[in-house]
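Try it yourself: sequence plus zinc ion, in.
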Amino acid sequence: MPRLFQPSLVNDVFGDPALIVDLTFRRQALLFDLGEIYPLPPRKLLNVSHVFVTHTHMDHFAGFDRLLRICLGRPRILHLYGPEDFAERVRHKLQSYTWNLVPNYVSDFTIAAHEVLSATRLKTVEFHGRESFHPRQPEESTIANGILVDENGFRVTSTLVDHGIPCLAFALEEHEHLNIWSNVIEEMGLGIGAWINDLKAAILARAPEETPIHASWTEGGTTRTATVPLGTLLGTAVRRTPGQKIGYICDVGFEKRNRTHLVELAKDADELFIEASFMAADADLAEARHHLTAEQAGLLAREAHVKKVTPFHISTRYSECEDAVVEEVLRAFFGTAA
Ligand SMILES: [Zn+2]
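Structure, out:
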């Protein structure tokens, strides 16, 4: 079965940060960071439903205009996520243009700017084309377990880290796969029915094992019912296999608090995209600019037990020795550093 997420960096490792993730067999894509995105054709940009911006330093956000230009006039909503003050940055971007004609467009292209205020609070401001992109009243909601988006079989989680300013790191996870063993269900004296969907929903919602599952099925023209605790079905009638996971970390310092949060976020990811801005020899520069060294990126990936590490956002000062930077990451990742 093909994997759900097809991630690819938009630019080379020295270019602006932007990672596009196409969702297999769906006309949907996600963007992580919004630097230069001209290499992406309009048909791809039109698939983008959500954009996750780590912070609004220019190299992470300058692609906003291009995305807006392509999406303008389309009957859709585009969700943008970013750290504190993000909605205000989006407002400034939008208000730098003249919109007197847009209220007459047939469609109402809308941007929802979601601002992560803290680990538990989200502020959302909508900008509607029909309203000349004037901001609507902000609405606040709660963030549970760092989850920003949970829909269509995947979720995006974030954590707040320090880059001299508040900055976000992200994990994209496919929901776990749940395989139902119908022979085990029958051996338990139950039958297959629509209740299987309730069972799956309870597992995905991480309901406690004592949660009653109300089974209902048809047998010989008669409807039969039974109630079974979730825990009885888990591990017997249901097999769980983890979904695909991708981590995205860009522009963070290596201090302890950041590390703890990042390792937890990226834990066991299939692939981790992580900045490797400076080499260890220039660690003082990395620290002053709240960036990771290549070695630190590799150590983080190792500690998080990711399966594959993909370094990017490398300083152009290393444009003649890209291989050395990547090697430094991999030596730390595989634990072969001198
Ligand atoms: Zn930055």
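One thing you can check immediately is this: The chain has eleven helices and 18 strands.
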